[in-house]
Structure to design on (205 residues):
């Protein structure tokens, strides 16, 4: 008669709790620190934005929308740069192209409705605020005009020898303001969206 023998029941092995608790604690601390960092970063960005532009909001009228306003003609307004800026495309240089209203265009300024007037752009303050920064303009001629306008405005506030023209990787042209280590660059692309039937697929250059 065959017999079978059973081994006595062995106690189940318990997983050590210390590594598990340590892992959970580390994860919790990491999560809390990341949330604190994001909050601090957002707060710092808002403060920096406010200090740069010095926007004055009329709290009696609630939030202020600077995109809602009208263009007004200001005879006293002075252009931040003139037609001698070499980066202005020849076909878009209204003054040198003898356009009838070439000079008058620069005298129009934006006036928000129900808000304080926008402060004049301060190129030197912009350079000091955006040290060790890279700014890129991507798009067609509209973006190129914005790029050229910013460059000419900043260029007019510094002396010769403080700007280096070069071609950053992936860009058509760029300039570095050496004293402030600020680089602005332009990359031309006609379309940022590709149409494929009914599907619109975004393409990042």
């Amino acid at each position: 008669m065959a017999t079978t023998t059973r081994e006595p029941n062995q106690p189940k092995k318990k997983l050590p709790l210390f590594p598990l608790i340590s892992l959970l604690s580390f994860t919790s601390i990491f999560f809390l620190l990341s949330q604190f960092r994001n909050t601090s970063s957002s707060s710092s960005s808002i403060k920096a934005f406010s200090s740069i532009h010095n926007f004055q909001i009329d709290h009696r009228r609630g939030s202020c929308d600077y995109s809602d306003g009208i263009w007004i003609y200001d005879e006293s307004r002075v252009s931040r740069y003139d037609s001698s800026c070499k980066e202005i495309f020849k076909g878009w240089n209204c003054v040198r192209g003898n356009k009838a209203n070439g000079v008058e265009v620069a005298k129009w300024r934006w006036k928000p409705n129900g808000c304080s007037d926008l402060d004049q752009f301060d190129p030197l303050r912009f350079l000091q605020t955006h040290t060790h920064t890279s700014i890129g303009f991507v798009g067609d001629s509209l973006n190129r005009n914005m790029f050229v306008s910013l460059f000419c405005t900043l260029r007019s506030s510094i002396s010769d020898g403080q700007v280096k023209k070069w071609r950053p990787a992936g860009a058509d042209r760029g300039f570095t303001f050496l004293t402030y280590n600020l680089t602005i660059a332009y990359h031309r692309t006609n379309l940022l969206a590709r149409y494929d039937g009914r599907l619109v697929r975004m393409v990042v250059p």
Notes: Residues 121-205 form one domain. The two ends are 82 Å apart (CA to CA).
